[in-house]
Each structure stands twice: as C-alpha cells, then as structure tokens.
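User: tokens in, sequence out, please.
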C-alpha cells in the first residue's frame, strides 16, 4: 500500500514525474523563457549549487550584480526562496531538458 508522499514505483525506483509534480515551484519552469541571456547564465549556475561569489567570479561581474539578477529571476519565475530557484534550475537543466 502506498503512503501519502511515497514516490516510488513497485520496483523501488523513484517516480521522478510524481516527485516533480508535487511541488509549487514547478509552475516556474515554463516562465524560464522570460529570462534574459545573462539571467539564464546565472540561473544555470544555480543548478550547480554555486554561491553568489562563485557566480560573480565565473561570469566576471560583481556579487551585487549577481544578487540583482537573482532578484529578477525569482520575481519573473514567481519563486519565494533561493532554494526553490536552485531546485527549479536543477530540474530545468537536468530533468526537464
């Protein structure tokens, strides 16, 4: 008998689609197209778990600029937290693609 929140199949494998559909941040995935090229670069770095400083160093911009991009990304995608942005980014680039 499956329990609430159990996303495994009978063979014991995780049902990725069921895991993804249960989360509110999934509504943000279609909105990724609204991001500018630079915001998309920052969004991609989130999937790697990069810190603001690492993103800044990699993209040769200031940390303050990274924070601004993150604010814009979260606003455009309707995300409340950086964690939701990181998860959405990971799913967008690794699962959704």
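Assistant: Sequence out:
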């Amino acid at each position: 008998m499956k329990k609430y929140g159990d996303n495994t199949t009978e063979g014991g494998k995780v049902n990725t689609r069921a895991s993804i559909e249960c989360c509110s941040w999934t509504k943000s995935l279609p909105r990724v197209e609204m991001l500018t090229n630079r915001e998309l670069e920052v969004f991609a770095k989130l999937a790697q778990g990069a810190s603001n400083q690492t993103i800044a160093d990699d993209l040769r911009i200031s940390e303050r600029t990274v924070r601004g991009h993150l604010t814009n990304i979260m606003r455009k995608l309707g995300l409340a937290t950086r964690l939701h942005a990181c998860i959405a980014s990971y799913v967008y680039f690794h699962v959704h693609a």
